[in-house]
Amino acid sequence: MNVEFIEALDQLEKEKGVSKEILIDTIEAALVSAYKRNFGSSQNVRTEIDRENGDVKVYTQKKVVDEVENDFLEISLEEAREFNPNYEIEDIVEFEVTPKNFGRIAAQTAKQVVVQRIREAEREVIYEEFVNRESEIVTGIVARVSKGIVYVSLGRVEGVLNQTEQIPGETYEIGQRIKSYILEVKKTTKGPQILLSRSHPGLVKRLFELEVPEIYDGVVQIKSIAREAGSRTKMAVHSVDENVDPIGACVGPKGIRVKNIVDELKEEKIDIIKYSQDPGEFISSSLSPSKVISVEVDENEKSAKVVVPDYQLSLAIGKEGQNARLAAKLTNWKIDIKSESQAK
């Protein structure tokens, strides 16, 4: 190795953020293993790379003892003092044992270490970039589909969209551009793993933040979301400015804002309701589009008895109970729905 090698390490430190000192320390440790593998493993050795010119030297280390039992690891006090009269028992004496052809081995070893460290540094950069984006939306391109798992290209890394996180019934074509929710970022031996979701309620929330400036600015707040992906979402919104209609802001002029989100979610229905601190009012709104006659709440049990017109009962409950189920999730209340005639 030579001056150019040291300069290359300096350049790496600037461009990739890989510490030159850590690299050299790692190379020196790898050179010890390379030396032992090629020239015998019985000795204690230390390698040293000159930080200025890149020269590599190998030193064998022997402990100063009264009585030598192992010539490879020990040296007598008498013999040690022939080199330096100041040596004492337990001191370490070093002798240079650099083989003639060690430069070639050193260069190969250094290259392997540097390549590995660059790979690790790049993985760390990607991990740090995405771990701070958990719970955010990312746009990617479908790279491949294997055994039902969709791999999405996010630039320097692929995201994984498992079957459990896909929208039921949605199909994915290679080259298709999709928005996904970053569910989790994991460190693995093969680099960062980015788990994506298209079915998480957070995706709907982030899509509205992108589409509705009033939500992004904090004027309109999303209080809660209940979602059955691919079918229906209920979302409760509140405005901190009485002059701004939270539902109107989310729907947008001629319904354009909510339409863009429905298109992204492949025609998933979205019910936007007005949030209220009054439980009865909130529960009544949550059962939209059904009309509600009365709501009787039990604060202790956090349950509510709701009465709806006879002709609205099936609408309030919804297909396979979906409307009632989503309303319960949205409000976090148990809801018992009865028709007017049943309640009498």
UniProtKB/TrEMBL annotation:
Domain S1 motif: 135-199
GO cellular component: cytosol
Entry's Gene Ontology BP terms: DNA-templated transcription termination; transcription antitermination
Domain of life, per lineage: Bacteria
InterPro entries: KH_dom-like_a/b (IPR015946), KH_NusA_2nd (IPR058582), KH_sf_prok-type (IPR009019), NA-bd_OB-fold (IPR012340), NusA_N_sf (IPR036555), S1_domain (IPR003029), TF_NusA (IPR010213), TF_NusA_bacterial (IPR030842)
Molecular-function annotations in GO: DNA-binding transcription factor activity; RNA binding
CDD domains: KH-II_NusA_rpt1, KH-II_NusA_rpt2, S1_NusA
Keyword RNA-binding: yes
Keywords: Cytoplasm, RNA-binding, Transcription, Transcription antitermination, Transcription regulation, Transcription termination
Subcellular location(s) per record: Cytoplasm
The keyword Transcription regulation belongs to this UniProt entry's keyword annotation: yes
Role this protein plays: Participates in both transcription termination and antitermination.
Subunit structure comment from the entry: Monomer. Binds directly to the core enzyme of the DNA-dependent RNA polymerase and to nascent RNA.
NCBIfam families: NusA (TIGR01953)
Family of this protein: Belongs to the NusA family.
UniProt protein name: Transcription termination/antitermination protein NusA
